[in-house]
Please model this.
Amino acid sequence: METTTESFRTPAGITLGLEHFGDPAAPLVLLAGAPTMLSWPDALCETLARRGRHVVRYDLRDAGASTSGDPESPDYTLRDLADDAAALARGLDDLPAHLGGIGISGMVAQVAALDHPDAFSALTLAGTRPVAPGPVDADLPDHDARTMERMFALPMPDWSDRDAVAAFAAAHAEILGNDPAAARTTAARVVDRTPSADPAAGRANQLGMVFAALDCTPRWRERLAELAVPTLVVHGRRDPFFPVGNGEALAREIPDAQLHVLDRAATAIPDDLTDEVAAVMLAR
Model:
């Protein structure tokens, strides 16, 4: 499928790198990266476009082709990222968009829909949770301890070495329960799209570690009952990073939300499940 890449400048002066799939006149599905746009599989974007949607996936700040500063000391907050999503939705279409967030960008999507309800017509939250990075609420399952131990035991690669970064991503994916070959390919593409050779930029693009330094206050979980748009919660049954109980909590606390569990998935959406995910997204 033919795609186009471009950049979008928000009213706040932030440049967001993005990629279009499908007919620009069709209803908009906006997919926030986690942190890069490649967190959303090509196959899912293409399937949604074939089914009559204009799909736009984009890089968060400090990722891909978007505005980048010092990812170890970001000068923006989670709410600034939510504002970016709303500005992009309004700039791309006169009508509200279906907003998707996956993993860390699922947090962005929740806050964006709460703070800018007029900008969004539907919400898809994939593999995420209702609280910020850091200590988790007592009623939510935290990261699987053994998985985290194994991930932190991996030596950091030379972020300027494309092959080393791809091998690291494959090992990381295997620990999480994702497809190592797919992760290797995607990581190499992320390297190719990373404009800076700075090690902090490479790590931010691959791991999204910038979120550990973001100001994510105030909390938003207690506001989830305010959401009035159709919401789909997609979660991998085998997700050890944000275990499925986090998705179940989101579905309970967001009015009329639908929970769709992918029994064979971990943190990533496998290509062979993109038809299934597209179908439930478009049913909202």
Q: What stands out?
A: The radius of gyration is 17 Å. The mean pLDDT is 97. Residues 9 and 15 are 4 Å apart (CA to CA). Strands lie at 3-9, 15-21, 28-32, 54-58, 97-102, 120-126, 231-236, 258-262.
